[in-house]
Prior knowledge:
Chain B: It is found in: Cell membrane. Chain B: One of its GO terms (biological process) is transmembrane transport. The complex is a heterodimer. By secondary structure, chain A is mainly alpha-helical. Chain A is built from 13 helices and two strands. A two-stranded antiparallel ribbon of chain A has the order 1-2. In chain A, helix 7 packs across helix 9. In chain B, 43% of the residues are buried. Chain B has 14 helices and no strands. By secondary structure, chain B is mostly helical.
Amino acid sequence: MATTTPARxxxxxxxxxxxxAPHGRGTWRARLWRFDDKASPYAYIAPxxxxxxxxxxxxxLYTGWIALHRVEMTSLDRSEWxxxxxxxxxxxxxxxxxxxxxxxxxxxxxxxxQLLVALGLAHLLNYKLRASTFWRxxxxxxxxxxxxxAALVFALVFRADGGILNWVLHFFxxxxxxxxxxxxxxxxxxxxxxxxxWTGYNALIxxxxxxxxxxxxxxxxxxxxxxxxxxxxxxTIPSLRPTILxxxxxxxIGSMQLFGEPLLLQGGTLGSIGGSEHQYETxxxxxxxYGWKLGxxxxxxxxxxAMLVLLLLIAxxxxxxxxxxRKSAA
Amino acid sequence: MTTASxxxxxxxxxxxxxxxxxxxxxxxxxxxxxxxxxGGPFTYAALVVVGLGSxxxxxWTLVAASHDQQRVLDSPPPLVPGxxxxxxxxxxxxxxxxxxxxxxxxxxxxxxxxxxLFFCTLAGYAFAKMRFRGRGVLMxxxxxxxxxxxxxxxxxxxxMMSDIGWSGKLESVVFPTLVGAFGVFFMRQYxxxxxxxxxxxxxKVDGASNxxxxxxxxxxxARPAMMVLGMLTFVQAWNDFFWPFLALNQQxxxxxxxxxxxxxxxxxxxxxxxxxxxxxTLPLLLVFVVFGKQIVGGIMAGAxxx
Lengths: 330, 306
């Protein structure tokens, strides 16, 4: 590694003569050199913070301002102070609470099975396998599929008439299910799309974490006479706790954002109101409908802030549960 | 360092030397060491089931795209591809301006990927190997931005874009995603391990300026990670739906937006919609077939965090 120069210290003059050492030669150069050292790191990280500031943080705060104003899609440059009216408007709208409920329910029934299956799948992939890369790539193919494609294919699969799922189920004696129009079946359908797209990805994340667990832990457990199931529960799971927490957080945030799946499950106008009875309307759909279909950006911004509050609530619950789990484990 | 015999170690795995402990417990020990276990028939059976489940919807996209709509919705649904693939592809292509949409997607995803690689490598290098005031706090700030969903800022973002005159233009989709927190974190993790301080010091002794060090030392070392990050970013940018759907219009969409609009038309022909879906997915599937191993490795490498 260090074969290039004879010495690593900065005091020995560099070989090859012509370059001349920059340090201490003339104050102007030295100062420039020091400035380069001090400023460079900031220059390198600046693009991230500039972009985030301009297109992330600033709009986030601006959302708060819009939420207190009347802004219409048809006249974007005009705004009128309305105070808390927008918030009152959405909080009194039963559709908003339906959307909150739906987002929460779909979030739970998509995240929980997805992470459990991913955990089991990672466990299987952690065995010594033939063609292990092949299996890993195969379970990751849904990740390469866009929301739009996935939602559209599953829309066909879940179709009431001529849907392939109903056809399969009729062999088991089930009647035709109208997946998209049912209160619960539509939520299940959307969760299936989410689960399909993300299970493999999460499995790989768990697999990476499993491979980082030192083998002597398992050996020690084996010496103590632990069965394989006990090893999984007492060694693997605790070692994976940070990773599991991480995936829970990411999946929770992801489920707050569900948009393409509900929009395209039935498509058309039904999609933009989340079903004829709003049975699968998520908060993102509600925001989109208010802002882009009805053209009222003020309430849409208020919805965004409501989402922020919900996220913070979830984070708080996560934190409390995490603390509780850690305490009871200790 | 390892005293284990060099002959019998599985390639790729850490040598995991069997300790020279009493023979008695050896069989049990091997059984216990989780990762050395071979998968049994049950393992393979389960993987086949999951694998089929992962691939079937994509296969069915192809099947549905190669029949006419009536056949697709018939009661025993078709299970093998039919002969109308080409005409459906053409219909999708014409109806939804997919040609333009694909060009747009290539431009958008290409710009985002190039910028992400450049900026994230710079920032990742700074966070990994340079000493500066506030490094820890700033890195935490970078990670924290991951938790902010785009929904929270789309309303003003839309207004800003219309202010600048970018509404409906590709710029409105490209600029907000030029650099991402994941990429910064990913490059930092890689460079922390892959780039030895000695290399940087040596370049400094030779009188290289910081930007020269980036060009001549950091970039060559970072190249493998940049490849992976590039593919991950491209996939994300190509598949992005929410903001592009709000920001772009029918005349000038990305491929995903065009697909959404194709299905939202009055009585969408399902097999044509599926043909469109196929067109939008194929490029990525090709990337996956060729670079699957690297992408898998990249996701797993990005996952292990402190």
